[in-house]
Design goal:
By secondary structure, the protein is mainly alpha-helical. The chain has a domain at 14-58. Helices cover 64% and strands 0% of the residues. It is built from 3 helices and no strands. It has helices spanning 10-14, 20-30, 35-60. The protein is elongated.
Length: 66
C-alpha cells in the first residue's frame, strides 16, 4: 500500500477551536498521551475518515461499462 500524506494544513484545520479534531486531540491528551502521540492518533483518525469517504464514494458510483 502506498502512503500518501494529507494536503498541507489539513491536520491544522482539524485542530481549530471547537472542531471534532480538537475534541479528539484533547481527549487523547486527557487519556495520558503525549502531544506527539495525540497528533499521531489524530493523523490516523484523519486517514481513516478520508479512506471511508473514498470507499463510500466508490460504492455510490455505478460500475464502469466494459
Amino acid at each position: 500500500m502506498i502512503s500518501v500524506p494529507p494536503p498541507a494544513g489539513t491536520r491544522a484545520m482539524w485542530l481549530r477551536d471547537g472542531s471534532r479534531g480538537e475534541e479528539y486531540y484533547r481527549r487523547k491528551i486527557t487519556e495520558g498521551k503525549t502531544p506527539a502521540e495525540a497528533r499521531h492518533a489524530l493523523k490516523r483518525r484523519l486517514s481513516n475518515v478520508v479512506y471511508r469517504t473514498m470507499k463510500r464514494d466508490q460504492q455510490r458510483q455505478p460500475a464502469a461499462a466494459a
